[in-house]
Write a structure and sequence with these properties.
Blueprint: E1 2-8, E2 16-23, E3 29-38, E4 41-45, E5 48-49, E6 52-53, H1 59-76
Antiparallel strand pairs: 1-2, 2-3, 3-4, 5-6
Length: 77
């Protein structure tokens, strides 16, 4: 997977660290994912419509997405 763009969250965004776009290994592109720090660790959330996530991820994919996004956030800080 490859992070295409990352947008660090502005001050006052609470536990949200960044928003980012990613290209998965199969070429699927997912836009506007949200990287959030929680008590349970890093979480990644897909955009929502009508109160439901448009995409859900397995825990293993969330871990990969979060690690890759964090690597890019640290380079932009």
């Amino acid at each position: 997977m490859k992070v295409l763009a990352i947008r660090p969250a502005p001050p006052g965004s609470g536990s949200t660290r960044a928003r980012f776009d990613v290209e998965m290994d199969d070429g699927t592109k997912i836009r506007d994912l949200k990287l959030v720090q929680s008590r349970q660790g890093w979480r990644v959330y897909a955009p929502q419509r009508f109160g439901m996530s448009l995409i859900t991820f397995t825990p293993a994919i969330v871990d990969r997405l979060a690690a890759e996004a964090l690597r890019h956030v640290e380079h932009t800080a």
